[in-house]
Structures are given as structure tokens and as C-alpha cells.
Amino acid sequence: MRPIVKPRSTADAGCTHVARKNRRNDPDRLTLRKYVPTAGRHDDFREERRGP
């Protein structure tokens, strides 16, 4: 019921986080605001599509 998703940074850092989401409460793509260590600032992380 709670799949593991890997949101990717919108900055060009190539950084990812690991998160769990509830499909019932968040059916759309997840957006989190997290710290990007390579950029040295906070940025948006958006859920990327998973391949088959």
C-alpha cells in the first residue's frame, strides 16, 4: 500500500532521496523540499516515473 519512491532533485545535482508515499492520500506525483548537499541549498525534489 505504501510504495517506495525516489524523488529526484530539480537542480542539476543528480541527487535523490528515498521516501514512502500513501497512494490513497497522494495519488499524484510527490514533491518534497529537501536539502541538496552538492548545491548547498534547499530545493524541490519531484517523484520520477519508474520504469517497467
UniProtKB/TrEMBL annotation:
Stored InterPro entries: Ribosomal_bL33, Ribosomal_bL33_sf, Ribosomal_zn-bd
Tree of life domain: Bacteria
This protein's record includes keyword Ribosomal protein: yes
Bias (Basic and acidic residues): 40-52
Keywords from the UniProt entry: Ribonucleoprotein, Ribosomal protein
Any one cellular-component term (Gene Ontology): ribosome
Spans annotated as Disordered: 1-52
NCBIfam families, per the entry: rpmG_bact
Similarity remark: Belongs to the bacterial ribosomal protein bL33 family.
Identification of the protein by name: Large ribosomal subunit protein bL33
Source organism (scientific name): Streptomyces pimonensis
Gene: rpmG
